[in-house]
Design brief:
By secondary structure, the chain is an alpha+beta fold. Helix content is about 45%, strand content about 15%. Helix 4 (about 95-105) packs antiparallel against helix 5, helix 7 (about 170-180) packs across helix 8 and helix 8 packs across helix 9.
Length: about 210
């Protein structure tokens, strides 16, 4: 009908058609057929959830539904492990409890806002943690479509992990790591001190013992 010159609209009362939705396929086929496509802003669950979540909104990544394939899902979760932006995920009620446990295994116990039934009668935004959400849905049956808004990994957490990684090495091994990358001893000492959160003199004193 569009090829014959008719204007066709995809309209929905449940989110933006085209975001994690079969409307995406219609748009793709229109481009392949040379049909012009335009879009008028509408309520997208990911943005609605983010703005009412109480989580940081300046930087975020949208993952939609996690892959059904187990290996692909593991790979995506591993990518999200060190994500510092706020993470937005969609989930169906019958998979929610399992997804929360998988998130806990990979991301640890992060802050989380569980949004459900957005813009509908039973809309809810529950600001909690992954552990508390797991406990809740061990006892309660999830109902409605969910949007999970998860805090990103903090810079403090990343720095602490890096510090622990370096502290598992001896200072000599740590020095050798940077020297092998082409740094001179003075530069290597400065980098080692920065990694360990100590002064360059402390590293020097340890090396001459």
């Amino acid at each position: 009908m569009m090829k014959e010159g008719k204007n066709i609209a995809i309209i929905t009362d449940a989110g933006t058609p085209g975001i994690s939705d079969p409307g995406e396929e219609v748009v793709r086929q229109c481009f392949e057929a040379g049909i012009q496509v335009t879009s008028l802003p509408g309520p997208a669950a990911c943005i609605t959830a983010l703005t009412m979540s109480g989580q940081k909104t300046r930087r975020f990544c949208f993952e939609a539904f996690l892959p059904k394939d187990k290996k692909e899902k593991v790979a995506v979760l591993e990518e999200l492990k060190n994500e510092t932006r706020t993470i937005i995920i969609y989930e169906a009620p019958h998979r929610l409890a399992r997804t929360l446990k998988e998130l806990r295994e990979t991301l640890g116990n992060r802050q989380l806002t569980l949004c459900r039934e957005l813009t509908k009668k039973y809309e809810e935004a529950d600001k909690t943690t992954i552990d508390q959400a797991i406990e809740k849905y061990n006892e309660k049956e999830p109902r409605g479509e969910y949007v999970l808004v998860i805090e990103g990994k903090s810079q403090e957490e990343i720095q602490e992990e890096n510090k622990q990684k370096w502290e598992s090495m001896t200072i000599e091994e740590h020095m050798e790591y940077y020297i092998s990358q082409g740094n001179d001893k003075k530069s290597a000492m400065k980098l080692v001190a920065k990694d360990r959160g100590v002064s360059k003199r402390d590293i020097y004193n340890q090396l001459i013992k």
